[in-house]
């Protein structure tokens, strides 16, 4: 399994090159995928073969304490630390330009942070999928969730979230996969990321000028359309696109992979 020691943490990542038969892109891009809370890089794998077939390189990262990346309590987590880990991974892989950052949920905050702090022009565009918009109410919501996990473990999250956070189009198989993502998450790592969201600062959206695509779930209660629209309004990009996925909740890529990859692929074709 591929790991990199980044900022004193052992982080799992994957690198999928463009498929050998791909001819669609005259200007290949590197896509950096950042997942959300209670998830892992596996969240994106339903769409990675298609993106690779378009001629683009795909990099996924299990954030510290998620998936196969072991949690180190001394290191902790924050939006800035996750963004630093992602940047350091790109440095280690010697990727210096034409990066499209995709962020789901909490990963959407990180994606915006990466774009806002990019002083070298490495980030070419941003794709936000059900992004969380930091707000004061999050502290109470995630404080309660932390307490539940401390008392009951991840079983409590795995029992409720697959039903509560998905839309009417979601299949039983997808809900079972979401359950496995949650039940396999380190409880301390999960709670650390809960605190990360609760304490997250609002990214400097106004400083971001690169093209942005935002995918929102019509039935997403975790990142409702109103919050997504507010994020998009904050971006100062000339190219801003909002796509609402009908019947989809908060696990967009798993619930509607064909639709997500089609929309993302079309956006990438405009960039390359």
TrEMBL record:
Gene3D superfamilies: alpha/beta hydrolase
Serine aminopeptidase S33 domain boundaries: 30-254
Protein name per Swiss-Prot or TrEMBL: Serine aminopeptidase S33 domain-containing protein
Domain of life the protein comes from: Eukaryota
GO MF terms, alphabetically ordered: monoacylglycerol lipase activity
Any one GO biological process: acylglycerol catabolic process
PANTHER family the UniProt entry points to: MONOACYLGLYCEROL LIPASE, MONOACYLGLYCEROL LIPASE ABHD6
Gene Ontology CC, one term: membrane
InterPro entries listed in its UniProt record: AB_hydrolase_1 (IPR000073), AB_hydrolase_fold (IPR029058), AB_hydrolase_sf (IPR050266), Hydrolase_4 (IPR022742)
